[in-house]
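User: Second chain of the day. Same drill as before.
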Amino acid sequence: MSGDKILANTIGAKQLMVADFTNLVQNGTFEDDVAGQAPGGWEVNSGVVVRNWSTYNANNGSKHSMGIDASSTTNVDALQDNFISVSPGDEFFFQWEYRFSNLTGNSQAGIGFRCYDANKQHTGWRKAGTTTARHYDVRTGTATYVIPAGTYFVRPWLMFDNNGASWNRFYVDNIVIRKKYSGELIVDGSIEANHIRANTITANSGIIATAAIGTAAIANGAITRAKLDTAIIGTAQIENGAISNAKIGSAAIDNSKIANATITSAKISSIDAAKITSGTINTASITIRGGNATRYTEIRGDVLNTRGNYTRSWFEGNEYIESETTVGEGMVRISKLNDPRGRRNLYLTNNGLSTYVGGADSGEGFGSGVVEFWSHMFAQDRRGLSLYSNLGTIGFRTQSRDIIAWSGRDFHAEAQRYLSLLCNTNAIYLQPHRDSRSGVNQFQFNVKNNSSQWDTDGLDTIRRPVSKW
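Assistant: Same format as last time:
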């Protein structure tokens, strides 16, 4: 762009970064979100929703902000969905606006990165800028952060650490994260532009706040992530270029043709699924989600996660369940999230059902048991079915009918301490060689029905079988 085509006297440069103006936060203003729901593009804990603070008497002029409710027992986080590619040594600039709902607590609240290696495996949570001071007025925070060795992907992260009390809220708005070029930043200054005598002005991205562009010709170039707040463009010609991530508030475009170009980061109000007839949706880059903050189904990467809640009757008792089902890594996990004793998991794998993914729980006593298929627990030369509990009790009970244990060969009942056979209202029968030998071969264990408990004796008799199942 020729310098004599810039008619404005000054290009405002508050927080202007040399070489890269791109804001890496995909949704940092929350203006298009719905108050009371989770912010778009963010993975959040319970208690993190978009808040309407347009009526707050000391707000920053925005309609919405992200509200992170404090917890008295744990940290509360919000994590951007998208991964950002980085290299060790890259330096980033952070800026955000924030306030609190009251002055309770002194834990850290702020912003940072969740870091990953080249295979997108988690390596750590890294705080860039935090505060422990509580205040009602809206303030602006800034910070810089250098990517450590071994980190090649990051996701922006907002945190409100364990506050020791649950009656506070951390409001965050207008989040900006930019990559710094050689660590250089022009802050709160201006570039005087009465006469720019240069054949070419080159920048990765920029914002022209208020300017009149007389006649501009952009040929064989690309405008990416441009935002024209108030501008008059007299005659413009864009040839063989690509406009990416542009936001046009209101425009009438007649006879347009986009050929051999790439449009990135576009917002399309609706897509007819019937038009998608081929290809693959790569969930490593795109998250598929439906529902709300507490009841939803989500596909991210190689994991499907669904969460919900319901009320049920279980053995004549009513209970409210918050449940989560996760399908990934070749198994299914069903979790009860709101158990007062801690999270309860049930795993379905190719081995069977278990309350620990490895079967037994190493003697800690927090598991329940295992139903193991293909089991060699009791016979090394045959595949069988086993019930196992390391510290619990395995029981069989019917309300009004029989329990039958029928073995095709031998029947073993062994115990390290006691072996109890109980019957509430009738006798107990043992019948060896039932099908292989005839005669009186049924043992009956019974109790006399005398008038006094002092006259009641136990009986062990052998008799002819009463019935045959």
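The mean pLDDT is 79.

User: Great, on to the next one.
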